[in-house]
Write a structure and sequence with these properties.
The complex is a heterodimer of chains A (110) and B (114). Chain A is mainly beta. Chain A contains no helices and eleven strands. Helix content of chain B is 0%, strand content 50%. In chain B, the strands form two sheets. In chain B, strands 2, 4, 5, 6, 9, 10 and 11 form a seven-stranded mixed β-sheet that branches. Classes of the chains: A mainly beta (110), B mainly beta (114).
Amino acid sequence: GEDVEQSLFLSVREGDSSVINCTYTDSSSTYLYWYKQEPGAGLQLLTYIFSNMDMKQDQRLTVLLNKKDKHLSLRIADTQTGDSAIYFCAESTNTDKLIFGTGTRLQVFP
Amino acid sequence: EAQVTQNPRYLITVTGKKLTVTCSQNMNHEYMSWYRQDPGLGLRQIYYSMNVEVTDKGDVPEGYKVSRKEKRNFPLILESPSPNQTSLYFCASSLFSTGGYEQYFGPGTRLTVT
């Protein structure tokens, strides 16, 4: 079945880059997403990548996709305290379901 | 303002007492979904709906019911809540199905079943 895994915590210093990793098992994934959840709020889409791409850049965000290894990463350049949140990786396949990872809590310290 | 609303935001109830969590979207989205969020487990899909009168089970449907009588509303019903349904619940909607379309999430409903 489908499974999406992430490490639970990441701590970085303000101004450094953050890299959040995700692995998935379903090779039929069509889209892969990164969502951000701030404290007490719902999730908001940060960015997504289609499965036939290997990289997508959007301002401070860079998404890398390695389809062979089923590995997705999100790099946040110049990480700020406002980036502290939980980041969820998610995949959609040929079904109508969206499978989320466990979430990575990013803590940014001064 | 385009949004997904959920009510109530917080609910404490007792085992076996039926409850409904409402969800409404004002974006004319066809696809709506319910998730529960538990520590260390991420978000798991409970039910989803492709359109009016079309609903289907997600990964954890046991103990839940849904209905989609109107496009904008997608209530979640717990006929006989149990403590293992204590969780944070999110409703979400998207224009069409999941492929490439952003899911818009409601603010969440924190449910405690004692």
